[in-house]
Amino acid sequence: MLAVAFPAAAFATNCYVLATGPGQECLVVDPGIGVEDTLREVLAEHRLRPAAVLLTHGHLDHVYSVTPVCGGDTAAYIHTDDRYRLTDPIASLAPGTLAMMEQQFGQRATWREPETVVEVTDRQTLTLAGLEVEVLHAPGHTEGSVMFGLAVVPEGLPADEGLDRTMVSGDVLFAGSIGRTDLPGGDHAAMQRSLRDVVLPLPDSTLVLTGHGPATTMRRERGTNPYLQGLTA
């Protein structure tokens, strides 16, 4: 699998481009704020064509550029419980945060809902761009937060890591931390259940591509992440 990651221009949200190889269709995961230029460069460099946009959840910093990327037959995929957020994710921003963002970019924030949206559900398997992607519903950060699992890993990983699968975790799991639950739609109890029932059962051989910050592995997080300590799968 070819995997390219780069941060958005705001909130350091990771955008991922996944494909079976150069010159193929690809998946774009979580196109955040100000990613259009870098994304065009990545697509041109590897001769990739977006087949779908996958959204781990509906927060603005993960979906802001979804409509420029989508178009024609390119649909946005989001869990049913977060579908409502694509109506106007700007409305959920605190006025101060919105003002700060607009000042940083020197223009008013606007939003246009993508034309084609596909709602996904827990344990659904998607076959897109030659890749099989399993949807794991893991609410807590938002009602419809999901992780996307693939039974392959990016090329070039150290063989001694023993990794054989990839999980794009969004804001469910970070390296050494987890997503916050104090925003609208967040639920601490739901997050604890997701960590116990969805995250902990993942094999140690799982590469975790996080929504913010560096990639990690389940082996590392199981042993060091304080938010997983004391939980029993």
**CATH architectural category:** 4-Layer Sandwich
Q: What percentage of the residues does DSSP assign to strands (E)?
A: 25-35%
Strand order in space, largest sheet: 1-2-3-4-5-6
In round numbers, the mean pLDDT is 91
Q: Helical proportion? A: 10-25%
Gross morphology is globular
Order of helices and strands: EEEHEHHEHEEEEEEEHEEH
The name of the CATH superfamily reads Ribonuclease Z/Hydroxyacylglutathione hydrolase-like
Based on secondary structure, the structural category is alpha/beta
Q: What is the C-alpha radius of gyration, as a whole number of Å?
A: 17 Å
CATH topology: Metallo-beta-lactamase, Chain A
What's the structural blueprint in terms of helices and strands?
Elements: E1 2-7, E2 14-19, E3 25-29, H1 36-46, E4 49-54, H2 60-63, H3 66-69, E5 75-79, H4 95-105, E6 117-120, E7 125-128, E8 131-137, E9 146-150, E10 165-170, E11 173-174, E12 177-178, H5 188-199, E13 206-210, E14 216-217, H6 218-224
Parallel strand pairs: 3-4, 4-5, 5-6, 10-13
Antiparallel strand pairs: 1-2, 2-3, 7-8, 8-9, 9-10, 11-12, 13-14
3D architecture notes:
The chain has 6 helices and 14 strands. It is of the alpha/beta class and 233 residues long. It has one domain: Metallo-beta-lactamase, Chain A. Strand 8 and strand 9 form a beta hairpin. The protein is globular. The mean pLDDT is 91. It comes from Ornithinibacter aureus. This is MBL fold metallo-hydrolase. InterPro entries: MBL_Glyoxalase_II, Metallo-B-lactamas, RibonucZ/Hydroxyglut_hydro. Pfam families: Lactamase_B.
